[in-house]
UniProtKB/TrEMBL annotation:
Boundaries of every Transposase Helix-turn-helix domain copy: 7-48
Pfam assignment, any one: HTH_Tnp_4
Protein's name in the database: Transposase Helix-turn-helix domain-containing protein
Phylogenetic placement of the source organism: Bacteria, Pseudomonadati, Bacteroidota, Cytophagia, Cytophagales
Organism: Hymenobacter fastidiosus
């Protein structure tokens, strides 16, 4: 697996967790919609667990 493919979702999830789960922080930082942030974090947290 390409490390760049792994790093981006991992970075996204770690910044989400560090910012105390503030989705607006992710929206501003990554330039995606709140709906997209919600879907991504749900999916990534599911994989992490």
């Amino acid at each position: 697996m390409n490390i760049k493919i792994v790093r981006q979702p991992l970075f996204f999830l770690l910044t989400y967790l560090k910012s105390n789960s503030l989705q607006q922080h992710q929206v501003a930082s990554f330039g995606v919609s709140q709906t997209r942030v919600s879907r991504l974090t749900t999916a990534l947290l599911g994989v992490l667990n």
